[in-house]
Amino acid sequence: MRKNFEKGGWVVFLLLIFSGCTHLKGYYPVSEYPVVSAADLKRNSNPVPIEVSFEFQSNGKFAPDVTEKYRPYVMHVFHESGLFSSVNPSGTPSHVQVEIVMNNTFNLGGAYAAGFFSGLTLGTVGTKITDQYLITAKFRNVTGETSDKEYRYGITSTSGLIHGGVSGVEAKSSVEDAFRATLEQFILFWLKDLQQQGNLI
Q1: What pLDDT is stored for residue 116 in this prediction?
Q2: By C-alpha distance, which of 84, 199, 198 is closest to 139?
Q3: Per-residue pLDDT tens over the stretch 131-169
Q4: pTM of the predicted model, to two decimals?
Q5: In whole angstroms, what is the distance from residue 150 CA to residue 69 CA?
Q6: Quick one: which of 76, 29, 4, 10 has its CA closest to 172?
Q7: Which of 9, 48, 164, 168 falls between 20 and 30 A from 81, CA-CA?
């Protein structure tokens, strides 16, 4: 009877440990660029309307569901920047236009391998995987001048009992919060970059 109890106790203990480990997760927006807020942008004394085009891709393939889900948030960030008189969807005539293509480049095999290894160790080793995003940003100002640039961002996901976070980066509680933070940081940094180049007219 005691042996059965001890065996059952170990099973419960392992289940608790495994459950706890797999739920210790963090999502970190990461990049090589400095953090920018809307307050860091120079106000425009004569703001003009802007036309915004946004597309999300997964390994180069158009992802309509993700595009439609986050397009409103992209528009929101441009509006909250305070630099434009109005923010309009693609197809609305405007002298100022932006085109954003965000491509998620990921190694599915590597993610599976990391997750499998973490499972074998009951999450005690943990995993640390970074989703990479290549963002192509095109801008045309009121004078017709254009600027095409590429930026690289990422979201590092960690799980397991023993894992390291990302130094200097605040963890988000969900991948959606991390993705929104990534979008916001990219847009604000890009706008500041355009201002410093003298292209944001």
Answers
A1: 44
A2: 199
A3: 899 999 999 998 889 999 999 999 988 876 655 678 888
A4: 0.79
A5: 23
A6: 29
A7: 168
- Token pair, residue 72, equals 């409103």
- Angle CA 44–149–134, to nearest 5: 120
CA 61 to chain centre: 18
Q: Which two tokens stand for residue 46?
A: 């004569």
User: How far is it, in rounded angstroms, from Cα 123 to Cα 171?
Assistant: 19
3-state secondary structure the chain: CHHHHHHHHHHHHHHHHHHHHHCCEEEEEEECCCCCCHHHCCCCCCCEEEEEEEEEEECCEECHHHHHHHHHHHHHHHHHCCCEEEEEECCCCCCCEEEEEEEEECCHHHHHHHHHHHHHCCCCCCEEEEEEEEEEEEEECCCCCEEEEEEEEEEEEEECCCCCCCCCCCCECCHHHHHHHHHHHHHHHHHHHHHHHCCCC
Tokens of residue 2, six digits: 């005691």
Please state the length of the chain: 201
